[in-house]
């Protein structure tokens, strides 16, 4: 069973480039993505503000994660919401990913438009219109595999009512979602979790297929307190798994983001189940939150290998109105800021070189406040970014460079996103 419709992904090469895509140079407007790729434009031809991906880092991160997951015996269903880029999903699936994880019905529709065959919805689908569409997808494609979550008896009732109203022929596989104190969704009490499991088994349109949750909602750093909280949660998940009676021969146990996947492997890796990891941010990685918290930075990677940041922002100095203050033409509508401000890394221009001691102190809609750097109007500043999930959603067509650290980067590809 192929993971994605390669022809549908390849068809993106025929999309014309034009004014719809930020920073794409006018010289290639009217040509296709395929033709622009062949031209291998220098990055200097592109306007600012700009977001780029790094080809070498993407390839490295795909391989490193695929090899690590394979060695643990687990499966990987990368969270596709990070990129919403079918071309990048194909790389992950071709490298051995079990499926793709998503969070909403609109995201599921994108995946199905590109023929993704196995999807995990990390949540409870309660929208009746969405459930009717899902029933049609499942009934119309026997090879389409789908798993979702439920965390209350009422959720189970609503799902069952909508599916029966849509006259669904195939039962929908559902995992009980276990949460934790001050976390996000998920049953807080183990007894309530068993009640949800009983409700799923009793629902004619549903099938109890596993258990899941998200440990990352319970810890936000790599402190001892955080890692202990993660371990305690994962042990609860494992214990509850052993007490449920599933309706499938090979149940799913799923957990894991991009921050604590090593602990998921240690606690859940030996269970008699399909243990599915859902890490998504690893592919793009960053120079902020995930750089600081990744297990590979804490020694989990074989041979000391680490993920490489594959995304960078680029902003032009448009004003230097005060000593040690410059304004860049990149802002909140261009780069992420929810998990840390961009980090100045390098200046291209008259004062080319690494940026020592400089920092971005604030972002407006279209400006970044750069302090402590010796720059002048016209200089280009490369920025390290934090949190890929809120970076790629600002760009519908993202240039891929051969090497963001090169003296003269060249654009070798373009990634289309569908947020």
From TrEMBL:
GO molecular function, one term: D-serine ammonia-lyase activity
Highest taxon listed in the record's lineage: Bacteria
Entry annotated with the keyword Lipid biosynthesis: no
Alphabetic keyword roster: Lyase
InterPro entries named among the record's database cross-references: Ala_racemase_N (IPR001608), D-amino_acid_metab_enzyme (IPR051466), D-ser_dehydrat-like_dom (IPR026956), D-ser_dehydrat-like_sf (IPR042208), PLP-binding_barrel (IPR029066)
Stretches assigned to the D-serine dehydratase-like domain: 310-402
Enzyme Commission code(s) on record: 4.3.1.18
First-level EC class: lyase
Pfam families registered for this protein in UniProt: Ala_racemase_N, D-ser_dehydrat
Family statement drawn from the similarity comment of this UniProt entry: Belongs to the DSD1 family.
Protein name listed in UniProt: Amino acid aldolase or racemase-like protein (D-serine dehydratase)
Species in which this protein is naturally found: Actinomadura verrucosospora
Lineage of producing organism: Bacteria, Bacillati, Actinomycetota, Actinomycetes, Streptosporangiales
């Amino acid at each position: 069973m192929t993971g994605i419709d390669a022809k549908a992904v390849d068809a993106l090469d025929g999309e014309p480039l034009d004014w719809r895509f930020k920073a794409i140079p006018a010289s290639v407007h009217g040509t296709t993505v395929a033709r622009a790729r062949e031209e291998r434009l220098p990055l200097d031809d592109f306007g600012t503000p700009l977001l780029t991906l790094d080809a070498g880092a993407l390839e490295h991160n795909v391989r490193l994660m695929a090899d690590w997951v394979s060695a643990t015996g687990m499966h990987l269903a990368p969270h596709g919401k990070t990129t919403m880029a079918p071309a990048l999903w194909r790389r992950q699936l071709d490298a051995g990913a079990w499926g793709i994880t998503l969070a909403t019905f609109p995201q599921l529709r994108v995946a199905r438009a590109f023929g993704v065959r196995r999807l995990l919805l990390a949540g409870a689908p309660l929208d009746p219109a969405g459930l009717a569409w899902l029933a049609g997808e499942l009934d119309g494609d026997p090879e389409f595999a789908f798993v979702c979550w439920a965390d209350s008896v009422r959720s189970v009732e609503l799902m069952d009512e909508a599916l029966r109203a849509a006259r669904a022929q195939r039962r929908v596989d559902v995992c009980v979602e276990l949460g934790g104190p001050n976390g996000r969704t998920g049953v807080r009490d183990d007894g309530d979790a068993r009640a949800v499991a009983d409700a799923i088994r009793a629902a004619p349109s549903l099938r109890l297929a596993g258990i899941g949750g998200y440990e990352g909602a319970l810890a936000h750093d790599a402190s001892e307190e955080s890692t202990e909280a993660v371990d305690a949660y994962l042990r609860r998940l494992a214990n509850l798994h052993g007490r449920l009676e599933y309706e499938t021969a090979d149940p799913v146990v799923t957990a894991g983001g991009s921050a604590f996947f090593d602990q998921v492997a240690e606690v859940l890796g030996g269970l008699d189940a399909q243990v599915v990891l859902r890490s998504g941010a690893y592919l793009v990685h960053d120079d902020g939150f995930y750089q600081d918290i990744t297990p590979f930075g804490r020694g989990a990677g074989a041979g000391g290998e680490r993920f490489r940041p594959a995304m960078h922002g680029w902003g032009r100095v448009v004003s230097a109105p005060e000593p040690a203050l410059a304004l860049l033409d990149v802002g909140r509508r261009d780069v992420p800021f929810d998990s840390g401000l961009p980090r100045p890394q390098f200046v291209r221009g008259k004062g080319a070189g690494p940026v020592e001691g400089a920092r971005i102190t604030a972002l407006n809609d279209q400006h970044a406040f750069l302090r402590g750097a010796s720059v002048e109007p016209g200089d280009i500043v490369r920025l390290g970014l934090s949190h890929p999930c809120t970076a790629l959603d600002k760009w519908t067509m993202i240039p891929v460079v051969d090497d963001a650290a090169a003296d003269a980067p060249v654009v070798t590809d373009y990634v289309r996103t569908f947020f």
